[in-house]
Design a protein that fits this description.
alpha/beta; Nucleotidyltransferase, domain 5; six-stranded mixed β-sheet; 32% helix; 28% strand; Spore_GerAC-like; Spore germination protein N-terminal domain-containing protein; GerAC_N
Length: 143
């Protein structure tokens, strides 16, 4: 019994509190688009929001990061290497695949989406015509 108490108390001291990355050092990815690439197998596009505080927060400002690679994972890793901030996928709401990719290799994107840590299962999965990059760049007017 005493040994159990010592182990439990010892493990409590080894737990860390807030050792995560600050929000200022994160880029929040709200959309992922995957198309068939021209020079490589895949073209991955990430829609990243531009965080702004104050009254104008949530005004729809975003930018797109693109990368071609022979694997979706390698493309995301290359985009992470180019980014100043840590790419955060916990707020990703949409996963878009181009029509050509949907006809050929949809299972590869679905496998990636299921296995990606931090990617929620509540994200919308859609097929875009003509391609995913064009859909992610589309900006709608919101009231």
């Amino acid at each position: 019994m005493v040994l159990l108490v010592i182990v439990v108390v010892g493990s409590l001291f080894s737990l860390s509190g807030c050792s995560g990355v600050d929000i200022d050092k994160r880029s929040v990815v709200v959309g992922i688009g995957v198309d068939v690439g021209k020079k490589a197998r895949f073209r991955v596009s990430l829609e990243v929001i531009v965080p702004k505080g104050g009254e104008n927060s949530g005004n729809g400002q975003f930018f797109i990061l693109d990368q071609e690679a022979n694997s979706i994972t390698y493309a995301v890793e290359a985009l992470q290497a180019k980014s100043e901030k840590l790419l955060d996928f916990t707020h990703t709401k949409i996963v878009v695949m181009g029509e050509d990719l949907a006809r050929e290799n949809a299972d590869l994107l679905l496998d990636y989406a299921v296995r990606k840590p931090g990617l929620q299962f509540i994200a919308w999965m859609v097929v875009a015509r003509p391609n995913a990059n064009a859909l992610l760049k589309l900006k709608t007017k919101s009231g």
